[in-house]
Amino acid sequence: MRVVTMGETMGSFSSERAHPLMRGQSLSLSHAGSESNVAVALSRLGVTTRWVGCVGDDAVGRMIVRELRAEGVDVQAHVIAGAATATMVKERLSPEHWSVGYNRSSSAGSRLSPAHTADALTPQTELLHVTGITLALGGGPRRAVLAAISRARAANVLVSLDVNHRLALWSAESAGAVLRKVLPFVDIVFASAHEAQMLCEGSSPSELAEQLGQSGVPEVVLTMGAAGSVAYTPASGLVECPARPATVVDPVGAGDAFVAGYLAARLEGEPLTERLALGTALGHAAVSTAGDWEGSPSRAQLAATMGDDVSR
């Protein structure tokens, strides 16, 4: 597996029409989770990827394992007896607005431990991708992520971190304190401009990216929604990329798609401009389609719809 990622994947129930939930309304069932979203998007781009996580001994957990494998993702799923697989409900309040609620307290996914990730990396692994969500789920998941990072560093495997702050899981203060301790062991960090302010001083995205880079993170990538993205490395300096105009169907999962595109280009040795371009193309596809990962394109689809400049 060239890429390994780990975290909680949930059953996702989404309203099929723009109306507050009520009796008799239809819901579609899928799965969602930042790390597995990235794994699916990478797999569709031809990057062999493994997802590691815990699920319950229930129908939702079995569905998650089955569907991830159907997407070509290598799955290390640990079944936790007596704990349910977490679920989320995406309520479409209007054509432009969604409300997302979670049922993940004491879930199987929150039982992830260092033992579950001990065999996650392979001799072929080039990159470990983790997120702040897993760090926020509790002591066990946090230790699992830190242990995996330690093993990756010892094996000269790149480590990427998506801050992915969730206020429902921990405060900005708590998140910042933990994440700042993790940053010295990370090779690539992804964050929104707002999230970056938890980690360093600065106002503009460019200033924040430079500050993070100068603090020791080798590669910093900040996303700014409709304003595009910016990346910084000491060798290349600041590189900016505009967003692609899009009709937003579902904004959830766009950040994960961007991360997958960027990492795929990174693994192919592309320069910062191409990494941002491929990330932007995948983010555009994600927001233009309903679902957290369903809109992630293959290489062939990218070439057919967006041109050869982002299809490598």
Short précis:
By secondary structure, this protein is an alpha/beta fold. The chain has helices at 34-44, 59-70, 114-117, 132-136, 139-154, 172-182, 193-196, 205-214, 254-267, 272-287, 299-306; strands at residues 3-6, 10-15, 27-32, 49-56, 74-80, 87-94, 97-103, 127-131, 158-162, 188-192, 219-223, 229-233, 237-241. Helix 1 packs across helix 9 (254-267).
Explained architecture:
The chain is α/β, with parallel strands linked by helices. The protein has one domain: UDP-N-acetylmuramoyl-L-alanine:D-glutamate ligase (3-Layer(aba) Sandwich), CATH 3.40.1190. It has 11 helices and 13 strands. The protein has helices at 34-44, 59-70, 114-117, 132-136, 139-154, 172-182, 193-196, 205-214, 254-267, 272-287, 299-306, and strands at residues 3-6, 10-15, 27-32, 49-56, 74-80, 87-94, 97-103, 127-131, 158-162, 188-192, 219-223, 229-233, 237-241. The longest helix has 16 residues, at 139-154. 48% of the residues are buried.
Please specify the SSE layout and strand pairing.
Layout: E1 3-6, E2 10-15, E3 27-32, H1 34-44, E4 49-56, H2 59-70, E5 74-80, E6 87-94, E7 97-103, H3 114-117, E8 127-131, H4 132-136, H5 139-154, E9 158-162, H6 172-182, E10 188-192, H7 193-196, H8 205-214, E11 219-223, E12 229-233, E13 237-241, H9 254-267, H10 272-287, H11 299-306
Parallel strand pairs: 1-4, 1-8, 2-6, 4-5, 8-9, 9-10, 10-11
Antiparallel strand pairs: 2-3, 6-7, 11-12, 12-13
Helix pairs in contact: 1-9, 9-10
Region (Disordered): 290-312
GO molecular function: kinase activity
InterPro entries: Carb_kinase_PfkB-like, Carboh/pur_kinase_PfkB_CS, PfkB_dom, Ribo/fructo_kinase, Ribokinase-like
